[in-house]
Amino acid sequence: MKRIVELTINGEARDMAVETCCSLLDALRDDVGLTGTKKGCDVGDCGACTVLVDGEPVNACLMLAVEAQGRSIETVEGLQPSVDTLHPLQDAFMRHGASQCGFCTPGILMMAKKLLADNPRPTDEDIRFGLSGNICRCTGYTKIFDAIKSAAREMEAARS
Amino acid sequence: MRRFEYHRAETLEHASRLLVELGDDSFLFAGGTDLLVEIRERLRRVRNVIDIKSILGLSDITYDEARGLTFGALVTVGRLERLPLVCQRYPNLRAAFASLGSIQVRNRATVVGNICRASPSADTIPPLIADGAFVHIYSRTNMRVVPLAEFFTGPGKSVLAKGEIVTGITVPPALDNSGKAYLKHGRRKAMELSTVGVAVSLTMEDGLCNDIRIALGAVGATVLRAPEAEAMLRGTALDAATIKTAANKAMEECTPISNVRASADYRRDMVGVLTGRAIKQALEAFA
């Protein structure tokens, strides 16, 4: 059975008609066409499908689309402040080569966004803890950490 | 995903009635971090999912010095993990919460769900048992309160009857003379099921151990207490030699199995190591 779900995706109010047993991840990818959010394990282990729901990071594969009624969802597609501008995290990931195959990158970017919102100057340990639910099988963690620290510095400089 | 019917319960009465009327293969859905995985991996036959997140009154957290900490069935692990009261007064619970899954999982998973899943390796159960927590259970005919230590009857099994719903947990107050610890042993820190988990909650009076509860996770069909080890420690000053003897006794009291995560012998050895360490860590509250 399909239900209509009214929600906000990347700041835009939308309706989705979804099967009640459909995950938020499948709805975002297949119904809304936002394929930036990746499906890795589909059981909450890998973090590739991390999106922000009302500002909190969750695995989109472990949430039903019908639960998104009235919620605000942020995906990697909403990270760019404008069409021709990258988010400081995206820019830093490119400059540091923090993406190899790139499959984990959208989830890590969303997790890093939340991490820096809560903690603008994270230590290595803070980043490790913050990203412990996001797996990169190319094992590019060092460059990912470098990129996040670099973005943190730039975002702080931009604020002051 | 395998298909299932989705129901949204408006009240406890409604949810309980649905559980009974829809029959077997019907399950409550709160955080969903276990249930949706079990559906997708075909570990559980699920025809009906009953979402309880619209039920009012299950999201509260309260604390008072007489009753202690009470939280409802919809309170997430992440919310409790970040609660200053938990960080300050219940370091054992804080350690267990922060070690469960990942941040993303903890933002969805509920503590009550972790308990109702009744896994012997569940992280939240040992410290709650060591603290003497109680489970509040609703049914359409009466409410009952069960000590968490008496809630489990086997792996994945509990005393819940058809139509009964756990509405919340109460943890007794954290006394000034108490020390608490939870140690989780796994291959990595995050997204890991515990190989062994040991919780210790104790109180000291005039330099002697007034009371102590040791709860052992992932080394039996349910989380176990170690009553003989506890008896050896009560009334003592918890000196190193007594701790060592009691830790050895705890190794005898557990009943581990060998599986993909560790052998029974290894688990038993780790019970000895972690019990000693957990007692010492609990004593750091008095340093």
Relative helix content of chain A: 25-40%
Q: Terminal Cα separation of chain A, in Å?
A: 52 Å
Shape of chain A: globular
The CATH level-2 architecture of the largest domain in chain B is identified as: 2-Layer Sandwich
Summing up helix and strand content along with how strands pair, one would put the structural category of chain A as alpha+beta
Subunit organisation of the chains:
heterodimer
**Beginning-to-end CA distance, first to last residue of chain B:** 53 Å
| Strands of chain B, count | 14
Number of helices of chain B: 11
Task: Note the total helix count of chain A.
Answer: 5
Q: How is the biggest beta sheet of chain A arranged?
A: 5 strands, mixed
Q: Could you tell me the strand content of chain A as a percent range? A: 15-25%
User: Got a strand count of chain A?
Assistant: 5
- Enter the CATH topology name of the largest domain in chain A: Ubiquitin-like (UB roll)
Rounded to the nearest angstrom, the radius of gyration of chain B is: 19 Å
Give the low-pLDDT segments of chain B: none
CATH class assignment of the largest domain in chain B: Alpha Beta
Mean pLDDT of chain B: 96
Largest interface: A-B, 31 and 26 residues
Helix and strand string of chain B, N-terminal first?
EHEHEEEHHHHHHEEEEEEEEEHHH
